[in-house]
Structures are given as C-alpha cells and as structure tokens.
C-alpha cells in the first residue's frame, strides 16, 4: 500500500517536470500560440453564470460606449459586457478577454429578451457556432448576428480581425483584416466577402484583407423585443446553433460576474449608465493596468449664433430685423351692439285751429296838393319857337 501511494505521489511531479520542459522549449519562440492537448479534454459542464434565468419588470439600461482593451495574449476571445440584475437594480458586467475552454468554440453573448410582458435574461455559452443573442449590437465583432471579430484556422489557432478588434500585432501575429460595414436593417444580415489582398503562407504574419457588409441594428439598446428593443428573430443558422452541444461559461467567467455583482461602482445607481470599469484585459482584473472606463455623457452646450463672415463685417449696418412673434394675436374688442329696431318717426307739427287774425287795414294815403297850372303864354311861346327852327 505504501508503494502504491509513493508511485501516485511521483506522477504529479513527473508531469510537472514534463510541463516545465515543454515550457522551456517554447520560451525562445517569437510566436507563442495557445497549445492544447490532443485529443481535446473532456467537456465539463459547469454551473451556469449567475442570473441565468432572471425575470424582471424594469427595462435594461442602454449599453455604455467604451473602447476595447488590447488582446493580452494569443488565443483569448473577446466576450462583450452586458447589464445583469442583482437585488433590486442592474449592474454592469465589464467586457473582457477570456481563454476559451477548448479549441474551435465561439462565445454567444448573453442578452435580455422581452417575453410575456417581462424582461428575461438569457445567459451566454460556448459552442461550435455563434447562436442567437437578440440582434444586440455589442460591437467588436458582435454586430447583432454572428461574429466577425475572429475565427479558428485549420491549425487550431485563433486568428483576429484587426478591423474590429484591438490587437497588438507585435504580440499577436495571426491576424487578418475584414472591413465591416454596419447598416441599420433588422432581421436581415448579409455577409459579402470580397477579397482585396490575400497574403498566405506567411510564417510571421498571416493577414487577409476583405470587405464584409452586415445589415444589423446599429444602436445602443440592450434588449431584444419589447417597446424599445431590437425587433430581431433568429436566423436558420442561429436556430441550428441553439440545438448544438454547448459549453457553460468557464470558472474565470463565473468569478468575473460574481466580482462585478459585489463591486459598488458597477451598480447602475452609482454610475448612471457610465461605469468606470467598462472593460478589462482579463476576467475580474478590475484594478489591473489596461482597465477601460466608459465614455462620459456628452456635455450640453448652449446654441450660439455663428460669428459674422468678413464680408458681413464690412457691410453697412442695417436695422435689426424685428423678432417674429408666433404667439396668437390678442382678441379684438367686441363690436358694438347693432340696434335693428326702426328709428322713431319725427314728431307731428302742432296744428292751431284758431281763426287767423284779420289783416290790418292800410292807412289812407295822404292827399297830394293840387298841381299848379303852367302859364299858357310861356308854353305857347316855346311851341312857336320850336316850329320856327323847323
């Protein structure tokens, strides 16, 4: 019995020496890809992440805006941040780089969905294909449908799309470049691969340049469905991925969520939707170098009139244009009441029926004095004198 126990004690030491020798063999290499044992280890289904079946009546906040920290080392895959629920409020689970549990699996992000008048949380998982995550545009390759931030190559190494992920090509050399164009179309994602530059068989830097167009919803909503969420439905490929074998989140991911729930600065009541720890280089590394904070809200600036142009500055001054009032004019005074009754007739003249007084009698004219008779001799003398002239 003691001999068997001694042999069992020697085995871990031997394995440790072998691992040390392997590590020393790869220490001098410039490229250090993640090496997995073959055959792949047996998949162990761990407990799901906290709040995997939470149902609440409060709508999740919008996604914060933040930058992605660089990939810490080859083989890590980006998992986007999301809002989770604990107690009576939301808290932010920072986005982080995670080492996958095995070769060839992708991460399907968690999301909130509108189900039966409530908001239901759907936990994330690992699988051979990316499943449905509500059409939420988390960014950095998770554009609402599928994942364009990286892919597994035939050698079991993960290649990174430098167009949408932050990698240091001096550290991570297995990269390619695919330009992703996001349009605001819901429930219809079309991926068009147009090869522009394809550089292969390069032992130091494998780079492929393509163009990819994704028609997805480009906004900051964090809920699928409901009055304010993304109106998305799973595609045929996403429905097929839902029926595949899934791998639960790793221990590091679960610890990451648990540590976020206990951090008071990640509560929505404390950060008002702009957490100071929006993303981390590795799980639960909330105080490590490389932690990224969310962008603060844009300040509200008062609208000011633009400065006058040089031509307007030398123009002759003009009287200012009076401000146009769009208020309703004051009501006009009421019109005087119109009397439609007929005017009263004029008063009738007073008739005097008494007889008129008799006319006055004129006074008798005075008698004129008798005209004296002209002397006859003088008259005749004039008559005779006149005939003599004839």
Give the arrangement of secondary structure elements:
Layout: H1 2-27, E1 55-56, E2 77-79, E3 82-86, E4 89-93, E5 95-98, E6 106-108, E7 111-115, E8 118-122, E9 125-127, E10 150-152, E11 158-161, E12 175-184, E13 194-198, E14 208-216, E15 223-224, H2 236-242, H3 251-261, H4 268-271, E16 279-280, H5 310-313, H6 376-389
Parallel strand pairs: 5-16, 7-15, 11-12, 12-14
Antiparallel strand pairs: 1-8, 2-5, 3-4, 6-9, 7-8, 10-11, 13-14
Can you characterise this structure?
A hairpin with a 5-residue loop joins β10 and β11 (158-161). The protein has helices spanning 2-27, 236-242, 251-261, 268-271, 310-313, 376-389, and strands spanning 55-56, 77-79, 82-86, 89-93, 95-98, 106-108, 111-115, 118-122, 125-127, 150-152, 158-161, 175-184, 194-198, 208-216, 223-224, 279-280. Mean pLDDT is 73; it is low at 1-52, 183-218 and 377-390. It is of the alpha/beta class. The protein is elongated and about 155 Å long. The chain starts with a helix and ends with a helix. It has a domain at 55-280. The protein has six helices and 16 strands. The protein is 17% helix and 18% strand. The protein has a five-stranded mixed sheet, with no helix packed on it.
General shape: elongated
Strand order of the largest sheet: 10-11-12-14-13
Using only C-alpha atoms, the radius of gyration works out to: 54 Å
Q: Helicity, in percent?
A: 10-25%
> How would you state the average pLDDT, rounded?
73
Q: What summary fits the major beta sheet?
A: 5 strands, mixed
Estimated share of beta-strand residues: 15-25%
Q: What is the oligomeric state here?
A: single chain
Report the span from N to C terminus: 214 Å
Number of helices: 6
- H and E string: HEEEEEEEEEEEEEEEHHHEHH
Structure class: alpha/beta
What is the number of E strands?
Answer: 16
């Amino acid at each position: 019995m003691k001999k068997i126990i001694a042999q069992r004690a020697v085995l871990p030491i031997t394995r440790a020496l072998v691992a040390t020798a392997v590590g020393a063999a790869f220490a001098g290499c410039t490229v250090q890809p993640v090496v997995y044992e073959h055959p792949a280890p047996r998949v162990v289904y761990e407990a799901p992440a906290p709040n995997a079946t939470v149902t609440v009546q409060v709508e999740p906040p919008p996604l914060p805006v933040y930058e992605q920290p660089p990939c810490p080392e080859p083989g890590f895959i980006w998992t986007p941040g999301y809002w989770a629920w604990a107690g009576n409020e939301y808290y932010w689970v920072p986005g982080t780089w995670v080492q996958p549990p095995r070769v060839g699996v992708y991460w399907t992000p968690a999301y909130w969905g509108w189900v039966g008048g409530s908001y239901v949380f759907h936990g994330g998982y690992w699988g051979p294909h990316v499943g449905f995550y509500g059409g939420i545009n988390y960014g950095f390759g998770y554009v609402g449908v599928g994942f364009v931030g990286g892919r597994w190559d035939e050698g079991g190494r993960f290649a990174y799309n430098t167009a949408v992920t932050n990698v240091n090509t001096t550290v991570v050399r297995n990269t390619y470049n695919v330009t992703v164009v996001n349009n605001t179309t819901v429930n219809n994602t079309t991926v068009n691969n147009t090869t522009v530059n394809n550089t292969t068989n390069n032992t130091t830097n494998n780079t492929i340049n393509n163009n990819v167009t994704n028609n997805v919803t480009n906004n900051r909503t964090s809920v699928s469905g409901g009055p304010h969420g993304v109106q998305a439905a799973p595609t045929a490929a996403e429905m097929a991925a839902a029926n595949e074998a899934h791998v639960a989140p790793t221990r590091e991911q679960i610890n990451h969520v648990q540590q976020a729930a206990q951090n008071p600065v990640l509560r929505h009541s404390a950060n008002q939707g702009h957490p100071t720890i929006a993303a981390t280089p590795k799980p639960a590394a909330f105080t490590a170098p490389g932690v990224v904070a969310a962008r603060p809200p844009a300040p509200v600036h008062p609208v000011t009139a633009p400065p006058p142009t040089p031509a307007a500055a030398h123009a002759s001054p003009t009287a200012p244009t009076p401000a146009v009032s769009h208020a309703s004019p004051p009501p006009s005074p009421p019109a005087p009441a119109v009397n439609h009754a007929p005017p009263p007739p004029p008063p009738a003249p007073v008739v005097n029926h008494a007889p008129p007084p008799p006319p006055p009698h004129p006074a008798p004219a005075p008698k004129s004095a008798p005209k004296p008779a002209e002397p006859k001799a003088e008259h005749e003398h004039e008559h005779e004198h006149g005939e003599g002239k004839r």
